[in-house]
Structures are given as C-alpha cells and as structure tokens.
C-alpha cells in the first residue's frame, strides 16, 4: 500500500514528522530534494511538504492533486500561504500547535473511512427497564444482517454487557484497557483488540472496580468506529458523565426505554430532561404496563417508536448464557423495524442489509 510522502531536507522537521506519523501508526516515504518527490507524487495518499522545500517543489511544476499540506516550525510566516498555493496544498500546519491535526491527516491517509457509522444510544428511563437487552438485541440484529457493528457498554455498574451475550469468557480488551486512550485510534487495531463475533465487536465494562469513561477515550472509540462500522450502539447508564455526554452528542438517535406505569413515567421524565439537551433525535420505546403507552409518550412530549414485546422466559435464557432470542421472533422483528426507522442511513437498500429472514 502506498505510504504518505514527506518532502523536506530539514532534519529537525523530519524528526517531528516521523514522530507524528508513528503516533498515527503510519510509515513515511521521504524525499529530501524536490526532484526526488516526483516518483511518489501521484500515488502517495498524502503529501506533507516542508516549508524549506516548498518553493523548490513548486518550481518543478508538480501536477495538481488532492491531499497536500505544507508544514512549518516557524509561526506567523507571512510568506507561507503563497508557498501553500504554489504547491497546490489545501492548508498550512504550524508545528507543534497543529500536531494533533497532522496526526489526523496521517491517519486518514493510512486508513480512509470505509464506512459511515451511525451512532445510536440506548438508555433506561427507569432502572430495570430493559435498555441493555434492547441495546444488545439491536446490535445483534444489525450484525446478523451483515452490518459491521460495534456494541459499546458505557455503564460501568452494569456488570458487563458481555455477560448478557453469554461471552464473558471471550478473550479481548474491556474498558479498563481502553480508558486511557485519546487521539486517533485505528478501527482495525481496535477491532483486533476487542472480542469480535462475526460482524459484531463488543467493548464491555468489566466486573472489577468501576472505571470512569473519559471524554477523550469515548471520542477516540466512536471516531474509530464511525470510520470502520455501519452501526455503533451505545448502552448508556442513567447518569451522564463526560464520556456519556460525548456519546450523546455523536448519536443520530437516542432511545429511552420506559415502562408504561406511573413510576416508570415519572422516572423517565427526569431521564428525558437529562438527555434532551445533549442529543438531537430522541424517541421512546415503551414496555407494557398499567398505563396506555400513547398517554405516557404524550406526557413526556417525546415520540414513541414502538412497544417492546415481552419475551417469556427471557431471564432464564440470559442466565443460561444464551443471547436474547431474535431472528423471526417478535423481539427480532421489533429490532429490525426499529433499525429501519432510525436516521443515519440504516435502510433496507444498504449493502448487506437484506438477508434470508423474509426482510
């Protein structure tokens, strides 16, 4: 695979570029004279031109191409934008201030986005409402239809969503292994580190001391997943910390599971008040109870996406280590219909969506 090209004879600048590229997990080709860049110019996914060779490179008349940046270690040079235009670059990056942006440029060149993952958050309007079961069921349904899916367990007090899937013994990283990450993360590396079952990858909490999810770690995981996945399902706790707030801001839709009874409605009113400022599309999934689901939804002023079917013997199924029963079951059909209705491109025409289950 072609590598990004660095064009510079400034050894200090080159050392910086090699270090920044290593942070992005990228190796560089290096041209230390303008003429040496010509064999790499067209095929390199990204060209980084040092300020020291920008004029020399422009004099060779390189053909126009996208993804060219000029880098400099001198701040505020008024001549830098002229050099940028001369070599056909789209921006000037001043180091060290722009190091993070350059990491992103290198990372995008090495791992261009192959997907455009839709993020969906699921939260409980009241404790025990079944939000974790719904989150896992949505992720399983999508993955069984051929959509590359990441299931993110954002509840450090939930005991681990891997247990609900019957995969608590699966080898791979959990949140304590990931919580210290920030900046760009390769989705391929993330997927390799986490437990993966077919098209479903799982980032679960663990059963040791609870670990707070930092905003930076959640951002790194979701950014990587959006580049490499079709769907990201985040199982949220009922409190909103920094990491959870980061997930909400990136969600195409947030689903709140609400029992249709008085305490469920009262608790959900508080949850909706907490979640509403941080997310765009907010909708309810109701559980049957003593109240009319339509009345509960109207009282909360949130649209109802449907009534979750009750699954007989679900607790026993999960305790045996079996995942929720899906496929052609009422729960499976409900999850498929709910995914079809969500914003963000999860429609039946998407590649891999249609499968031999009658849909």
Automatic annotation (TrEMBL):
Report domain Rv3660c-like CheY-like N-terminal positions.
7-115
Q: Give one Pfam hit by family name.
A: CbiA
Q: Which GO terms describe its biological process?
A: negative regulation of cell division
The CobQ/CobB/MinD/ParA nucleotide binding domain covers 120-157
Q: Which InterPro entries match?
A: CobQ/CobB/MinD/ParA_Nub-bd_dom (IPR002586), P-loop_NTPase (IPR027417), ParA/MinD_ATPase (IPR050625), Rv3660c (IPR022521), Rv3660c_N (IPR059050)
Spell out where the chain crosses the membrane.
Answer: none
A cellular component term from Gene Ontology for this protein is: cytoplasmic side of plasma membrane
The GO terms this record gives for MF are: ATP binding; ATP hydrolysis activity
Protein name as it appears in the record = P-loop NTPase
